[in-house]
């Protein structure tokens, strides 16, 4: 019978839905110019792809909401950082409070793979987890729908990741929608595991605001 154990008046207790835990995680997407960072984000968030290339200026944002499980909602705040920013001095501001990163290279241009270590170094020198360890970073070998430039085989890539401090790597294609969800899921698993080990206020939904002007958000450490 519907009434038994229900929330009707006079039963002395009221039914409440199970508490849902909500996280807001800031994730960086970095790598050389034209490797496909914006395309990966567009594919992941909007299921869209365009051949048209328009370079990102500075930084762009996107939000992906993931119903992780019945008790967990994850909001991923994706920071799409322009490839040319590695030569500027703004990355320290952009990286602040990030808890994960996707480092992208283009399999058709070997030079973008060579730059991966520079991006990783830039990342590790400017942002750390509250416990002092590097933020988890996943390496994406993007444009795998095209012919490769270079000869890294999977075991060499595994070794490169171990030595370079990446938690893993995926061959991706924003064009053909290959491995993008999988790579993001793998990163979020790691971010969540870190969060459970070291819960902190930084990824508390109420604290991390998506500010369209990161300069204003960090005026103390700014210089022009
Ligand atoms: P910046 O903003 O300049 O740093 O570049 P980006 O890394 O954001 O690159 P973007 O996503 O704008 O992509 C650059 C070009 O590569 C565009 O013409 C895309 O259509 C193309 N592209 C991106 N991903 C793929 C892919 O997986 N396969 C193929 N074939 N082309 C891709
Ligand atoms: Mg871009």
Automatic annotation (TrEMBL):
It is found in: Endomembrane system; Membrane. The keyword Lipoprotein applies. GO terms for molecular function: GTP binding; GTPase activity. GO terms for biological process: endosome to lysosome transport; phagosome-lysosome fusion. Keywords: GTP-binding, Lipoprotein, Membrane, Nucleotide-binding, Prenylation. Its main location: membrane. CDD domains: Rab32_Rab38. GO terms for cellular component: late endosome; lysosome; membrane; phagocytic vesicle; trans-Golgi network. PROSITE patterns: RAB, RAS. InterPro entries: P-loop_NTPase (IPR027417), Rab29/Rab38/Rab32 (IPR030697), Small_GTP-bd (IPR005225), Small_GTPase (IPR001806). It is a lipid-anchor. The small GTPases Rab are key regulators in vesicle trafficking. Belongs to the small GTPase superfamily. Rab family. This is Ras-related protein Rab. The lineage of its organism: Eukaryota, Metazoa, Chordata, Craniata, Vertebrata.
